From TrEMBL:
Gene3D superfamilies: Zinc/RING finger domain, C3HC4 (zinc finger)
A Gene Ontology molecular function term of the record: SUMO ligase activity
Residue ranges of domain SP-RING-type in the record: 210-291
Disordered: annotated segments: 1-42
Annotated Gene Ontology cellular component terms: nucleus; Smc5-Smc6 complex
Name the UniProt record assigns to this protein: SP-RING-type domain-containing protein
Alphabetized InterPro entries for the sequence: Nse2(Mms21), Znf_MIZ, Znf_RING/FYVE/PHD
Pathway: Protein modification; protein sumoylation
GO BP terms, alphabetized: double-strand break repair via homologous recombination; protein sumoylation
Species of provenance: Kockovaella imperatae
Length: 337
C-alpha cells in the first residue's frame, strides 16, 4: 500500500507542469537552478537561504561559545589529572621494585612508560592551550575564520615542534621525571644521585653536557620551619588556570607557583602568630627565596609525602645513620652550596 501511494505521488509530480521561479528581470530560472531549489526544504527557499548560507562562517564572541570552550578545556584537564594519577602509581611501583631488587629491569620498563605518559600529557596540554588561544581571541572581539582548521593546524604545528625534540630536551627540566629518578635512587643510596642528564643520553642537536650536569639531585623530607622530618605533612595546592601559548614552554593546566610542604603544626602556628599581630589572613611563604603568599585553606594533607618521609626515617634507623642536612624539603642541587 505504501509503495503504491509513493508511486502515485511521484507520477503526479512528474506530470505536473514545472513551477519555475521568475527572476527580477522577467527571465525564468534554469533547469539547474530549479533542481537546486526543489532539492531544498520549502522553508529554506522561503527564507532566502542558499548553499553559501552553510559555508563555514567566522565565529564571533558569545558567552555560550566561550563556555563551551571552557567545558572542553575542563574535559582535557580531567584527562591530564588522570595521567598524573597514573604517574604517581608508577613512581610508587618503581620504588617498591627497587626495594626488593636493586636496578631491576622492570624499572626500565616502568620508566619507558612513564616518559611516554609525560609525552602524552604534553600533547593533550597543547590541545588545551590552543582552545585557550581561541577563547582569548573571542574575548578580544576577534573573529575566528574556519575555527576547525585553525584548531587542527595549530595543534599539529605545536605537536610537531614538541615531538621533534630529543628526549633530553623534553625531560631534562621535568620535575616529575626528576622526582621519579630521585625517589628510586634514595632507596639504596645514602649519597645524592647523578644529574638527570645521566639518564638521558645525548643525541644530535643536544647542547653540551657541561651546560646541564650541575651536581647530584637529593630528595629530603624535612620541614623548612622546624628543620625536622615532616609530621602530618601538608602541601600548598592551588589550581591556577593559564594558557601557556604566550610562554616559551608549555606547562600543565594545573599549576602551582609555590608547592612547598610543611609539618602541619609548624605552619599553623605561623598563621596564628600572624593573626595575633595583624588581621591579614595570609602569610609569606617561610621557604627562603619564595615570594608567594600562603592562605590556610591552600594547605592540603599530603599523605604520600608523609609516607615517603616515614619510609626514609625507617631506612635511616635500619642503616644506623643520621642525616644532619638541614636542606629544604624539595629537590636541591649540591653545587648550590
Amino acid at each position: 500500500m505504501a509503495n503504491a501511494v509513493a508511486s502515485s505521488s511521484r507520477t503526479r509530480r512528474q506530470n505536473e507542469p514545472s513551477q519555475r521561479s521568475p527572476r527580477p528581470n522577467g527571465e525564468t530560472e534554469s533547469d539547474e537552478e530549479e533542481s537546486e531549489r526543489q532539492a531544498k526544504p520549502r522553508i529554506l527557499v522561503e527564507a532566502g537561504w542558499t548553499n553559501a548560507t552553510f559555508v563555514n562562517r567566522p565565529i564571533v564572541k558569545s558567552t555560550a561559545l566561550i563556555n563551551k570552550i571552557i567545558k572542553l578545556q575542563a574535559d582535557l584537564t580531567q584527562v591530564i589529572v588522570e595521567i598524573n594519577e597514573g604517574l604517581e602509581r608508577a613512581r610508587d611501583l618503581a620504588r617498591e621494585i627497587e626495594e626488593c631488587s636493586e636496578d631491576d629491569d622492570m624499572i626500565k620498563s616502568i620508566e619507558k612508560n612513564f616518559l611516554r605518559n609525560l609525552e602524552q600529557r604534553q600533547l593533550i596540554q597543547i590541545q588545551h592551550d590552543v582552545l585557550g588561544e581561541m577563547s582569548l581571541k573571542l574575548r578580544a572581539n576577534e573573529e575566528l575564520v574556519d575555527a576547525d582548521s585553525y584548531y587542527e593546524n595549530r595543534c599539529a604545528e605545536l605537536s610537531a615542534q614538541y615531538e621533534a625534540k630529543t628526549a633530553r630536551a623534553k625531560f631534562k627540566e621535568s620535575e616529575d621525571y626528576q622526582s621519579f629518578r630521585a625517589l628510586i635512587w634514595e632507596i639504596n643510596h645514602e649519597e645524592g644521585g647523578p644529574p638527570i642528564t645521566f639518564y638521558l643520553p645525548k643525541e644530535d642537536g643536544d647542547e653540551s653536557d657541561e651546560d646541564f650536569e650541575m651536581g647530584s639531585m637529593v630528595q629530603t623530607y624535612r620541614c623548612p620551619i622546624t628543620l625536622l622530618p615532616f609530621k602530618e605533612a601538608v602541601t600548598r595546592f592551588v589550581v591556577t588556570w593559564h594558557c601557556s601559548y604566550r610562554r616559551s614552554t608549555l606547562s600543565p593546566p594545573l599549576s602551582v607557583t609555590c608547592k612547598h610542604s610543611f609539618s602541619r603544626q609548624a605552619i599553623l602556628e605561623m598563621f596564628d602568630q600572624q593573626r595575633a599581630r595583624a588581621a591579614a589572613s595570609t602569610i609569606n611563604c617561610p621557604v627562603s627565596g619564595c615570594k608567594e603568599k600562603l592562605a590556610r585553606h591552600d594547605l592540603k594533607d599530603d599523605p604520600r609525602l608523609q609516607k615517603l618521609c616515614d619510609a626514609a626515617e625507617k631506612r635511616k634507623a635500619l642503616y644506623g645513620h643520621d642525616d644532619g642536612d638541614d636542606s629544604e624539603a624539595e629537590l636541591i642541587d649540591d653545587d648550590d652550596d
